[in-house]
Write a structure and sequence with these properties.
The chain is built from nine helices and ten strands. The chain is α/β, with parallel strands linked by helices and 224 residues long. The chain has one domain: Rossmann fold (3-Layer(aba) Sandwich). 38% of the residues are buried.
Length: 224
């Protein structure tokens, strides 16, 4: 049986797409909860593909309400996590969901844009981002900004849905830039990443507003 993701928000597709890009206010909070359902498998699989190592400092771009941060921090000893999102609503929600992790200084959350990250060069051992690529305003420059804050030999993982998958969704006609894996590999190469590879992981079928989709998560990695 397909897992269900029915928005029940009564939002027009373009309005729903706007909140998926940058959740805002009470509606944004509800969209964040819905994204926990639709993004569960791709997010958790992205952490597995990332394979964090003991004492790594990990940056996540666009963590939403941070519901899965606890799962990432359980994957290795003494991990430190920083999540950034350009939605103030999501930063507030993530801080509430992860108060204990913040209190013990294993997680930090900041409102920031991928265009200008508030971190020094060579700050992070790895970077992960899930379903944000569609909204990067200047993809090559944005990838270069991620390269800047990675340590030498650090890993970037970009998780996304394929263009062929996204083309089936009405909401993805509004403000989404869609990619196939070869597009993302080329993007990372042009930004200066090395040893680029892509892994595809099948997920359970997903019912979205009455239509059933066969879902795959695509995970493209590059090394600084």
């Amino acid at each position: 049986m397909a897992e269900k993701f029915n928005s029940d928000t009564k939002l027009a597709p373009e309005e729903l797409a706007k909140h998926l890009r940058q959740p805002d206010g009470e509606t944004g909070k509800q969209i964040g909860l819905l994204m926990n359902k639709s993004n569960k498998h791709i997010c958790l699989n992205s952490y597995k593909v990332l394979t964090p190592q003991k004492e790594d400092h990990i940056l996540e771009i666009g963590m939403g309400n941070g519901f899965f941060v606890k799962d990432l921090l359980n994957m290795a000893d003494n991990l430190t996590y920083t999540g950034v999102d350009f939605s103030a609503t999501m930063v507030q929600e993530a801080s509430l969901f992860n108060k204990k992790l913040i209190d013990n200084k294993s997680a930090f959350f900041k409102e920031a844009s991928i265009e200008n990250l508030p971190f020094d060069d060579h700050s992070f051992d790895s970077i992960t981002t899930t379903n944000t690529l569609y909204f990067w305003p200047q993809p090559i420059n944005n990838a270069k900004e991620l390269l800047r804050v990675l340590k030498p030999n650090g890993k970037l993982l970009v998780a996304y849905r394929s263009k062929s998958c996204m083309d089936q969704l009405e909401l993805a006609k509004h403000g989404f830039q869609k990619y196939e894996s070869h597009d993302v590999e080329g993007l990372l190469s042009n930004a200066g990443f090395k040893n680029i590879s892509t892994q595809i992981i099948k997920e359970p079928e997903l019912e979205f507003d009455g239509k059933v989709f066969q879902i795959e998560g695509i995970f493209t990695t590059g090394i600084k």
